[in-house]
Amino acid sequence: MTAQELQNLKNKFDIIGNDPALNRALDIAVAVAPTDLTVLITGESGVGKENIPKIIHQYSRRKTGKYFAVNCGAIPEGTIDSELFGHEKGSFTGANEMRKGYFEEADGGTLFLDEIGELPLASQAKLLRVLQSGEFIRVGSSKVLKTDVRVVAATNVNLMHAVSNGKFREDLYYRLNAVSVRMPALRERKEDIYLLFRKFASDFSEKYGVHKVTLTHDAIALLRSYRWPGNIRQLKNIAETVSALESEKIVSRSDKCEIDADTLAGYIPKDEPNALPARLTWADETSGSGEREAIIRMIYQMRQEIDYLKTLVAGRSEASSVTSPVKSIAPVSAEQDAEWQEPDDVEEKDSVPGDMPDLSLHKAGEGLIRKALEKYHGNRKLAAMELGISERTLYRKLKNLD
């Protein structure tokens, strides 16, 4: 493919990145698409393996046929044969009617078998028969049926190791591996990491109407130095979490939300050099995604309530004060926090009788900061959390207090 054709392909399937290994995988997918060769996609969990079978299907002569994606690791072992090959009525408890399997439904189209390494050995034998002859038998039937299906498989485990351990058929492995496509891990695509972060932050900004989060140079360096065991899926989660917690609802287009390395470090898990890359099943992924969406919605609602409280605080301050001007409520930027979080910035000009305790808000704020730092033995991050302000604000206040 030419550079322009490759970019058009990425735009069509929403693929971000310019890594040579990624480009190579896309080239192979397009080149093999017009054939009926079986393709095996390898790569860690979360690297985007699901894009390759979609490309193969869309660029093949089967593009007008059906496309199904089946996660073999998410289907219970007792029902996997019924899912793939179908069953007859009464073939087992609960089989109240005849049901077609994916191989029958996808006749003339493409079937993507994800996590193929999780397929039981008995089902592997039946899959091998379909790949070799196109023949299969429904559960509870003796009638041989024919199908014409292009199979693309994917795995995040070492199938040769599984073969040596007797957990995967060697003949099936070589039948599936007619063409191999390897998707690189995110840590191997360091120049693509910030591009992906910007894409996810931009999508979140458009969806929820908040400022797009950008990173300083030191934050970008931190992002690239992390090993990303969860790959693109983990990066997207962090980008959305940072956007939800650090950004504000758009009021003025000129406002920006820039995050530095110290702030970003609070969202990136501590790197464990000996930890293995994450290996997630489909069930883990979907449940985590649903919980993450619920948390993000909750955070966004809290943001809206906070904006409302800001308005109430500003209104009450204006009603109770005649001589002291009140600052207008503005979106929180990367350099400041909401004013209702900064009581020690308010100047108290009224004199205090000598026999009364010092009621200055400035002094009170200074005392709270000192107590928080003493409580956490000088740990500024924990102290800032205790005070309910950002670590950046605490640094600024300490600088003012000298």
Index terms:
402 residues, alpha/beta, five-stranded parallel beta sheet, two-stranded antiparallel ribbon, 16 helices, 9 strands
Polypeptide structure, described:
- 47% of the residues lie in helices and 9% in strands.
- The chain has a five-stranded parallel β-sheet with strand order 2-3-6-1-7, covered by helices on one side. Strands 4-5 form a two-stranded antiparallel ribbon.
- With 402 residues, it is α/β, with parallel strands linked by helices.
- Strand 4 and strand 5 form a beta hairpin.
- Helix 9 crosses helix 10 (217-225) and helix 15 (380-387) crosses helix 16 (391-401).
- The chain contains 16 helices and nine strands.
Largest sheet strand order: 2-3-6-1-7
Shape: elongated
Q: Name the helix and strand elements from N-terminus to C-terminus, one letter apiece.
A: HHEHEHHEHEEEHHEHEHHEHHHHH
Distance between the termini: 61 Å
Short note summarizing the structure:
The chain has 16 helices and nine strands. The protein has helices at 3-12, 20-32, 51-58, 80-85, 102-105, 121-133, 159-164, 170-176, 190-208, 217-225, 231-246, 261-265, 282-320, 361-375, 380-387, 391-401; strands at residues 39-42, 67-71, 110-114, 135-137, 144-146, 150-155, 179-182, 213-215, 257-259.
